[in-house]
């Protein structure tokens, strides 16, 4: 795709790139950013000219709505560089559409496709050098929007800032994780904002997750309002394998409609796995763990693609899962296949990858 | 109370006050602020020196946690000037304690009483001129805390900024309001953050409230997860009078424990009203409206003290309340009595008011 940067976006380059000071071997997820960012203001009922400019602090009035009422949404996606140095996005329209759904739910203006998608491509074009090749390397992309209007009035802002940040990422094998099934705390309400990638959903999880971590777990698997159905976990949707069938909860207004989740469902079907989207009950998973038919649980999300779960606790009892790594693990197979599509190391028959 | 500002707080005065440009007759709630603000940083596991300095923008990294994960809490309280030019706070320890409860739920550090309460007193002392006398005039106080650490990592921040802003307020008679009973949307989950004054709770209400406003209502009365119990509304707790008894919902992890609510409960008891704290069912209110025993509904919160509700809708049917203004309205009587205590125009037998 050719983008005439000077036409659609105003571009101010950094004086000196900081790429030489960046350690691509030791990368902490989400901690450091590339030289430039894209910013675009919304005011007078319209998106203004988008700018690509040096990464720099944002200055806001202390009464800005985002500080007081959490009117803020974001997205998380990745870019990959193939062996020919071409850069690819994975299903970017999915993130664009989800961003605008989040915007509606948070009473924020929808963003134009030109700003979000073409802007992103223009920005990555400028930051090409920051995307490294090789399986495990990627560029994490963080589009977000915040309410900037001043005034401590609990009503929607009329001014917003849209911004895209880029952060080089590397996947390390972090090991399998232990999770706790939520019995008291909740992440989202029926008719609430759980399905939106709204800022407030994440800080709401911090305290319960901290308690779970203090008790020796990595994450919580959130349940519905009756604490009987398994929903999602941290920043991942969740899959359960009982015998030879994979189950995952349907999306709802409590659950984020994950791009990895929907891609895995399609991929699993294509690969001939039995996969069913239907409510997953805590009781059936406990029972399956007890009678040995529960083979695997895994989380799915952009950051880690797939995270295997080795144990869960429920009502103070710990349930260990068998190690299927050398016995045809579905999680490992699906992770391998999806990662190869994303990295252009396997044929993309779904047409999911988009060249920049 | 004597505060040695130079000892406990660093103080940088403005060069020139903007008080002469402030129109005290035409005040829009929460829109404009006084000359100074209090700020205090949290880092290296400790609150740093608090500073009182000119009101000015806050500068943050674009990856600051508050923008992405909504880790932010606030309080709302008021100061009043009496006929002798003394300034009074209303139950400030309640707001201080609630702030720290919110902090715990959002995995943020609790603030020291010296910074919150003594800091507030020192700040108001400096801004004395901004507090006007006379019933209806007050100074709105907005303490808040935001997560400032950079990095798009969905985990609690290690750095925070606590801040207090002051905004002169005036109460106008805004009229009675019309509300809609929530049948689909929710404000808070069981085991969620509804009881905290967390930023994310407010933006979550914006879209449903916008829809309600487009349908001709001012606010929504939120219900529990089964949409059968009436809980609270916007930034107010809610009271229902059936015949001669006032009912209000008990607080829970979904409902904010309002200072106005608890003060009204005590005041109503003292004044000899029948008041019961117990779950209030949608069905009983609809029935009472239909058989004419529903006399009043009112919201209670710091901003407006009491807001009378003249009509509500449920399942697309509108229920009008009788006009009790000249027939011994409990809402008007309680509002008058509470406002007079706050403004030091009536004896404060509860010891609720605290002199600065
Ligand atoms: C709450 C939540 N669930 C699930 C996911 C997974 O979604 P995706 O696969 O689109 O990254 C995310 C995002 O990472 C999330 O924030
Ligand atoms: C959600 C909510 N409910 C009720 C109230 C009323 O609380 P208070 O009386 O302490 O102002 C507030 C705060 O204003 C609020 O934000």
From TrEMBL, chains A, B:
<keyword id="KW-0028">Amino-acid biosynthesis</keyword>
<keyword id="KW-0663">Pyridoxal phosphate</keyword>
<dbReference type="InterPro" id="IPR043131">
    <property type="entry name" value="BCAT-like_N"/>
</dbReference>
<dbReference type="GO" id="GO:0009082">
    <property type="term" value="P:branched-chain amino acid biosynthetic process"/>
</dbReference>
<keyword id="KW-0808">Transferase</keyword>
<dbReference type="GO" id="GO:0052654">
    <property type="term" value="F:L-leucine-2-oxoglutarate transaminase activity"/>
</dbReference>
<dbReference type="GO" id="GO:0008652">
    <property type="term" value="P:amino acid biosynthetic process"/>
</dbReference>
<dbReference type="InterPro" id="IPR036038">
    <property type="entry name" value="Aminotransferase-like"/>
</dbReference>
<feature type="modified residue" description="N6-(pyridoxal phosphate)lysine">
    <location>
        <position position="197"/>
    </location>
</feature>
<dbReference type="InterPro" id="IPR001544">
    <property type="entry name" value="Aminotrans_IV"/>
</dbReference>
<dbReference type="GO" id="GO:0052655">
    <property type="term" value="F:L-valine-2-oxoglutarate transaminase activity"/>
</dbReference>
<protein>
    <recommendedName>
        <fullName>Branched-chain-amino-acid aminotransferase</fullName>
        <ecNumber>2.6.1.42</ecNumber>
    </recommendedName>
</protein>
<dbReference type="GO" id="GO:0052656">
    <property type="term" value="F:L-isoleucine-2-oxoglutarate transaminase activity"/>
</dbReference>
<comment type="similarity">
    <text>Belongs to the class-IV pyridoxal-phosphate-dependent aminotransferase family.</text>
</comment>
<keyword id="KW-0100">Branched-chain amino acid biosynthesis</keyword>
<keyword id="KW-0032">Aminotransferase</keyword>
<dbReference type="Pfam" id="PF01063">
    <property type="entry name" value="Aminotran_4"/>
</dbReference>
<dbReference type="InterPro" id="IPR005786">
    <property type="entry name" value="B_amino_transII"/>
</dbReference>
<dbReference type="InterPro" id="IPR018300">
    <property type="entry name" value="Aminotrans_IV_CS"/>
</dbReference>
<dbReference type="InterPro" id="IPR043132">
    <property type="entry name" value="BCAT-like_C"/>
</dbReference>
């Amino acid at each position: 795709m050719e983008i005439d940067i000077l036409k659609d976006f105003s571009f101010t380059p950094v004086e000196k790139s900081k790429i030489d000071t960046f350690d691509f071997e030791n990368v902490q997820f989400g901690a450091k950013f590339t030289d430039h960012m894209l910013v675009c203001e919304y005011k007078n009922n319209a998106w203004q000219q988008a700018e690509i400019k040096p990464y720099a602090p944002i200055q806001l009035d202390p009464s800005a709505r985002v500080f007081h009422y959490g009117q803020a949404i974001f997205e998380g996606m990745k870019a990959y560089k193939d062996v020919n140095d071409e850069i690819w996005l994975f299903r970017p329209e999915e993130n664009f559409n989800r961003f605008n759904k989040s915007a509606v739910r948070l009473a924020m203006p929808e963003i134009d496709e030109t700003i979000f998608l073409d802007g992103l491509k223009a920005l990555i074009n400028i930051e090409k050098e920051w995307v490294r090749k090789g399986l495990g390397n990627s560029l994490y992309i963080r589009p977000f929007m915040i309410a900037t209007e001043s005034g401590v009035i609990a009503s929607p802002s009329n001014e917003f800032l849209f911004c895209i940040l880029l952060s080089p990422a590397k996947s390390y094998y972090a090991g399998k994780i232990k999770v706790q099934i939520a019995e008291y705390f909740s992440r989202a309400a029926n008719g609430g904002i759980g399905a939106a990638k709204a800022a407030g959903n994440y800080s709401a999880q911090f305290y319960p997750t901290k308690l779970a971590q203090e008790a020796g777990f990595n994450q919580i698997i959130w349940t519905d309002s009756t604490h009987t159905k398994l929903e999602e976990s941290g920043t991942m949707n969740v899959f359960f394998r009982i015998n030879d069938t994979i189950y995952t909860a349907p999306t709802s207004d409590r659950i984020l409609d994950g791009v990895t989740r929907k891609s895995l469902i399609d991929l699993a079907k294509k690969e001939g796995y039995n996969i069913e989207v239907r409510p997953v009950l805590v009781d059936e998973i406990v029972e399956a763990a007890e009678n040995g038919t529960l083979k695997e649980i895994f989380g799915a999300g952009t950051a880690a693609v797939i995270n295997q779960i080795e144990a869960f606790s429920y009502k103070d009892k710990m349930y260990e899962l068998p190690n299927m790594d050398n016995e045809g693990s579905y999680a490992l197979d699906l992770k391998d296949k999806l990662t190869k599509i994303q990295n252009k190391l396997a044929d993309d028959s779904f047409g999911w990858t988009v060249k920049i």
